[in-house]
């Protein structure tokens, strides 16, 4: 009965993860389009405001308390820091890099999360999965190509964003169970406002009135982002981390497809090889996850 329950939880968590990745990919496309005519800091602030308002409304309708004592817990404080870092640097990545490149680099997140789950939560991860994590990270290096003439320091921005998201996901796992998805989402989007405000001081760009196209992109990003965020938080709190997180690789399919179709991007051989290693590692981790400790 316990095995059946675990399998059901893992399947539900995986379904939530796939839905979240599809919505996140569409959100990224909207944000990249909005950043073409608006300062990055403004995009972050407006996006954060919209998402926070939606989650505040959901919290009110469901009776969740936004100022619950658990909000000030250490896991939530750590989560907020990682949220700010992840959101700021990944927003910069999708604004400055091809969407497909930023999306591919982000796919290292599950590797870091699985490794972190073993180190922080003592989940059993055997030497075969540790080897797969190493191979996947080698795929990231192939994509980055450090030392090559084609290497772009801007790609490191996406790496920092990826590490921020991995920390955010792990902290979400440790967040008090009494905090609802609406509360987690609300404070997650407040972190966007903090990130945007801080970057505004560095960027020094004046706020601009969004034109109709930019306004529609921001609205689309807010709607997709809140749906994706809710699905991701549900996924990270359903089933085992090592079983659910590999499905984050589906974002690669959605993100690359949108980059090719909407922004006329192209894939390099290094990106294809690196992506293949990352995805293969993730699938192997998923398969071995059914045999805990092997």
Write the layout of secondary structure elements.
Elements: H1 2-34, H2 40-62, H3 74-96, H4 99-106, H5 109-120, H6 127-144, H7 155-174, H8 181-203, H9 212-236, H10 241-244, H11 250-263, H12 269-289
Helix pairs in contact: 1-9, 1-11, 2-8, 2-9, 3-4, 3-7, 3-8, 4-7, 4-11, 5-6, 5-7, 6-12, 8-9
Structural summary, described in words:
By secondary structure, the protein is mainly α. The chain has one domain (2-289). Helix content is 76%, strand content 0%. It contains 12 helices and no strands. Helix 2 crosses helix 9 (212-236), helix 6 (127-144) packs antiparallel against helix 12 and helix 8 crosses helix 9. The longest helix has 33 residues, at 2-34. The protein is globular, with a radius of gyration of 18 Å. The two termini are 22 Å apart. The mean pLDDT is 84.
Shape: globular
The tally of beta strands, per DSSP, is 0
Number of domains: 1
Q: What pattern of helices and strands is seen along the backbone?
A: HHHHHHHHHHHH
Count of separate DSSP helical elements: 12
Note the beta-strand portion: under 5%
In the predicted model, the low-confidence regions spanning at least 5 consecutive residues are none
First-to-last CA distance: 22 Å
Helix content: over 70%
Give me the Rg, rounded. Answer: 18 Å
Structural class: mainly alpha
Which key features would you list for this structure?
mainly alpha; 12 helices; 294 residues; single chain
Short summary:
Helices cover 76% and strands 0% of the residues. It has helices at 2-34, 40-62, 74-96, 99-106, 109-120, 127-144, 155-174, 181-203, 212-236, 241-244, 250-263, 269-289.
